[in-house]
Amino acid sequence: MTLSISLIIIIITCLISFTALNNYGQLDKLSLQPYMVKNYKQYYRFITSGFVHADYSHLLFNMLTLYFFGSSVENYVFLGLFHSKWIYIAYYLLGIIVANIPSYIKQQNNVNYSSLGASGAISAVVFTAILISPWTPIYLFFAIKLPAVIYGALFLVISAYLSRKGGGNVNHDAHLWGALFGLVFPLLFHPELGTQFIYMLTHRSMFGQ
User: Fold this and answer.
1) Could you tell me the residue range of the domain that residue 53 belongs to?
2) In the predicted model, is pLDDT for residue 172 greater than 80?
3) What is the Cα–Cα distance from 14 to 56, expressed in whole angstroms?
4) Residue 94 sits in a domain of what CATH number?
5) pLDDT tens-place string over residues 174-184
6) How many domains does the chain have?
7) Distance CA 91, CA 42 (A)
8) Can you tell me the distance from the alpha carbon of 106 to that of 15, in angstroms, rounded to the nearest whole number?
9) Which of 171, 190, 191, 202 has the greatest number of beta carbons closer than 10 A?
């Protein structure tokens, strides 16, 4: 049995999130606050914000998504193509950082802005999984079955809507930028995945082969 990096990330994230949800001071210290990053050089927030969550439902949704999608990305892409599951760690952390950069640029002078969550990295994992297998069925509420590529499109549309609507401290922009990172990162090193994706997309349908 090989070591599951995704499971380790889930355990660490849950431990940190549980602790922070019971300690507002810690939650505040670990969240992404662009003003604090810019003026006090607290660059660590780009990463630590991905290990704390707004509430237990936010944490559960992200960790369940990582659990269901992480293994295929970890094993097929990083073990199979990169020949190292440890690169998956760098990919996951970069997903958090890259997804946070647009919010930092937009909100760096806003002393009241704060966001948190693993949304960027989770979106990256989801869209890398879509890249390698777009028609894999995703079950919603144990009843509705959608192809991964359709799920991904709806995911982006809903995230864009919530981002425009605003409110709360969940960084919905991170979903969009994390998704883009999840597509670009593997294609930079293995562009053949793009050809493979187009082939699978055009030679299969949501109704099967």
Assistant:
1) 5-203
2) no
3) 9
4) 1.20.1540.10
5) 888 999 999 99
6) 1
7) 22
8) 30
9) 171
